[in-house]
Design brief:
The protein is mainly beta. It has 5 helices and 28 strands. The chain has a domain of 222 residues: Neuraminidase (6 Propeller). The strands form 7 sheets. It has a 5-stranded mixed beta sheet, with no helix packed on it. Strands 3-4-5-6-10 form a 5-stranded mixed beta sheet.
Length: 343
């Protein structure tokens, strides 16, 4: 018998395994780190803050942002700056909404607090998830937004939050983060382990709202998958992303997509079939005295939930939205007075 060359044998075995084993057994893709410390800032108008969600219209104009006084603002470039695009009926009707003499936390239940935003490209309509006023819509020219829905199955909305639109049908997928607590008391949702949130669908043709899933712990951002087979839902607590299957053999199933390194807010599709997830806060550390090596404010997931990129920022910065547009990242935050831009 001829003597076996062990080095050659191992090489053949390694090649064979690489061909036979599924990709999940291969080395994990390295995670890219993108710092946002030096991102360009677009300051919001004096007296307002909290661009919680960002959107771009069918002509690519924007971003549009919902802010603390209840308005939707539009960025018109450095020459025009921010202008008012849309508002609720109450914004013009109630003097406190425009007086800026009372903190927005005291007036948002009356004036509205727009959170999730998304355009339906075919019509140019902008859909708005207003935490207090419900699911709303305004036409491509802006103005006063109309309320489309304030309840589902006889249960009123308490905290309408994330939103996305199926660009093929016009159906709107959105979350009601709690049927117990309004946005102002969102910390109670976490402290009391509230699990009364819902994932909902607004049918653009019948104009009816259907509850797709209830009994959810703090559902927040929503994104329709690129192939429209499912929607991804970010759960602020317990810091996870799930997907609800709309069609196919798993239709109506709700399954874990990813464990996240922080508490998520909005979810957006990226340009590669995956998702950007904004992190409002990192997970609590067991060793609270030890400072984290880097402050995470967002992650990018592949379509299968694998984390492939992370965003870092200076301590104290929190993000609510990461929107990818023409190779650039636009950053929104419910707590800051500017919109960020990373080239």
């Amino acid at each position: 018998m001829a003597r076996i060359n062990m080095s050659a044998a191992w090489l053949v075995l390694a090649v064979a395994l690489a061909l036979l084993l599924p990709s999940s057994f291969c080395a994990a893709e390295p995670i890219k780190t993108t710092p946002t410390l030096f991102s360009f800032r677009l300051p919001l108008p004096n007296g307002v803050s909290g661009a919680e969600s960002l959107a771009f219209d069918r002509r690519g104009q924007g971003p549009y942002a919902g802010v603390s006084d209840g308005r939707i603002l539009k960025w018109g470039g450095s020459a025009l700056g921010w202008t008012t695009f849309a508002h609720s009926a109450n914004y013009r009707r109630i003097p406190l909404c425009t007086a800026s003499v009372v903190p927005s936390e005291e007036t948002e239940s009356m004036c509205g607090r727009p959170l999730g935003l998304q355009f339906f490209a075919k019509t140019g309509d902008l859909y708005i998830a207003d935490a207090y006023l419900g699911l709303m819509k305004v036409g491509p020219d802006g103005g006063e937004a109309e309320v489309l829905a304030t309840q589902a199955d006889g249960v009123p909305f308490h905290f309408v939050n994330g939103l996305d639109v199926d660009q093929a049908t016009g159906d709107v997928y959105f979350t009601d983060s709690s049927t117990t607590y309004p946005r102002r008391f969102n910390t109670e949702i976490m402290m009391n382990a509230d699990a009364t949130g819902r994932l909902l669908r607004y049918d653009a043709r019948s104009k009816q709202v259907t509850v797709l899933r209830d009994g959810l712990p703090y559902p927040n951002g929503v994104a329709v998958s690129a192939d429209r087979t499912h929607v991804v839902v970010a759960h602020t607590v317990p810091a996870q992303a799930f997907r609800y299957w709309l069609r196919g053999p798993k239709a109506e199933q709700y399954e874990l997509l990813a464990d996240l390194p922080g508490y998520p807010d909005n979810v957006r599709r990226d340009a590669r079939g995956g998702y950007w997830v904004a992190l409002n806060q990192e997970k609590a550390r067991i060793d609270a005295a030890a400072a984290p090596a880097k402050h995470l404010v967002g992650v990018r997931l592949r379509a299968d939930g694998m984390e492939v990129e992370e965003l870092t920022a200076a301590k104290g910065v929190t993000l609510s939205d990461v929107a990818e547009k023409d190779g650039k990242l636009w950053l929104g935050s419910v707590e800051l007075d500017y919109v960020g831009l990373v080239y």
